[in-house]
Design goal:
Blueprint lengths: L4 H11 L5 H28 L4 H21 L2 H9 L6 H15 L5 H8 L4 H25 L1
Length: 148
């Protein structure tokens, strides 16, 4: 079967599924934005309670981590991620989900070999890469600032 490039392209278009990108992008934007709005509401609430800016930042981060871990444990976060896609990867909540999910998956293997050994199976490489990259960046920064 010899096809010209235009015939082949038409065949590929017919066989390919339709893109869901507009819907996926909108859901990611709305749910990711919703997570950020929750963080902003928590920040405003903590600041209105006469809590210092430094403590407020810590409390907002801890609250978002706690909420994400709780929703992951209840199975809500994963269902939300099916619709939101990358919108649930807002760094702090996505990272909390990445730590809690393997812990739940391997809890049947026990606290040491299951939960303890597998809790960082997804997040571990991110932590290691981030630490190594920050050390390398720090050394490069120090070399350039010390030299000039």
């Amino acid at each position: 079967m010899n096809l010209s490039p235009t015939q082949y392209e038409a065949l590929v278009k017919r066989a390919s599924p339709k893109s869901k990108a507009p819907k996926t992008i909108l859901c990611a934007f709305l749910i990711g934005g919703g997570i950020c709005v929750i963080g902003q509401l928590l920040r405003s609430w903590f600041l209105s309670s006469n809590i210092s800016e430094t403590h407020t930042a810590t409390l907002v981060a801890a609250s978002l981590i706690l909420l994400s871990a709780l929703l992951t444990g209840l199975g809500v976060y994963d269902n939300l991620a099916k619709y939101a896609g990358a919108g649930t990867l807002v760094p702090i909540t996505g990272f909390a989900n990445a730590v809690v999910s393997p812990a739940l998956e391997f809890k049947s293997e026990g606290f040491i070999l299951g939960l303890g050994a597998k809790i960082f199976i997804i997040a571990g490489p991110v932590i290691a890469y981030g630490t190594i990259a920050s050390v390398i960046y720090g050394v490069i920064y120090w070399l350039f600032t010390a030299a000039f």
